Amino acid sequence: MKNYRELWEQLTPLYDETEAKAVVRTVLEVRFGLTLTDILCGKVNDLSAEEGRSLEKIMQRLRQAEPVQYVLGEAEFAGRRFKVVPGVLIPRPETEELCAWIVSEQKPTDGNPTTILDIGTGSGCLAVTLSLDIPGAAVSAWDISQDALLIANENAKAWKVPVSFALQDALAAPKDSMKWDIIASNPPYICPSEAAEMAQNVLKFEPSTALFVPQSDPLLFYKAIANYAIEALIPDGKLYVEINPLYRNQLEEMLKNVGFIDIEIRKDAFGKDRMARATRPCQTEKS
């Protein structure tokens, strides 16, 4: 049986030391119930022969650069654990920050539910979290992937929240009478030219349709979402989106041209422009 150091050193060709240690600690905690104290006290060596074989199978997958979240079948988001599988985007800390921003701005309601739409829900982490953390929220969520919707629905059931999921392409939003207080989205926003700078575990294993947008139009999804939202939000309703810092200025200009006001860009924990909020005015005049 390998000790903790020998385990994380296997991953240093892929990750720096801090991240390699974190990946191994996550495996030992989630799959084998070991606390950090247990790990540092050498209790990895106390695992049974069967547990040792299971650990080696996990390490083999990790050495192939498979994300630990897929190996374990779950990821943490906003202090909760969500099921994830290959083909479904792994929740990101930046999206947690977007979620926290939305929650922080909600005021007590007059008894009517706060209607929220999550466009491109993936694992459902954002929709489920908003449903749990905003009292009286009535949350719906779209995704173009049937596989993602199956996982999102499982996560909603696991957390016992009544999120309404629908198979829907964000680029072909319905023209209906539905009105929302909030529309939130973490759409694809990475251009293919940025792939060279991305980690191999992301490129090899995560769904490209949830990550990449055509090089010719990096704002493709934002334009579609903004044009839908300017009509579908209630007056003074809010649009919240995760953004690509490279296109911050173009995004802000586009939102203004569509008719949004009070546009605010916020930085993430790493100091990058990562989130935007825009308000539908009481009267809209689309340009």
What topology does this entry show?
Blueprint: H1 4-9, H2 17-32, H3 36-40, H4 49-63, H5 68-72, E1 74-77, E2 80-83, H6 93-104, E3 114-119, H7 125-133, E4 137-143, H8 146-158, E5 164-167, E6 180-185, H9 200-205, H10 208-211, H11 220-232, E7 233-242, H12 248-258, E8 261-267, E9 273-279
Parallel strand pairs: 3-4, 3-6, 4-5, 6-7
Antiparallel strand pairs: 1-2, 7-9, 8-9
Report on the structure:
This protein has 287 residues and is α/β, with parallel strands linked by helices. It folds into two domains: 4-64, no CATH class; 87-280, Vaccinia Virus protein VP39 (Rossmann fold), CATH 3.40.50. The protein has twelve helices and nine strands. It has a seven-stranded mixed beta sheet, with helices on both faces. It has a two-stranded antiparallel sheet with strand order 1-2. Strand 3 (114-119), helix 7 (125-133) and strand 4 form a beta-alpha-beta unit. Helix 11 (220-232) packs parallel to helix 12. The longest helix has 16 residues, at 17-32. It is elongated. The protein starts with a helix and ends in an 8-residue tail after the last strand. The mean pLDDT is 90. It comes from Hoylesella buccalis ATCC 35310. This is peptide chain release factor N(5)-glutamine methyltransferase. It is an enzyme of class 2 (transferase). Residues 19-73 form the Release factor glutamine methyltransferase N-terminal domain. Its EC number is 2.1.1.297.
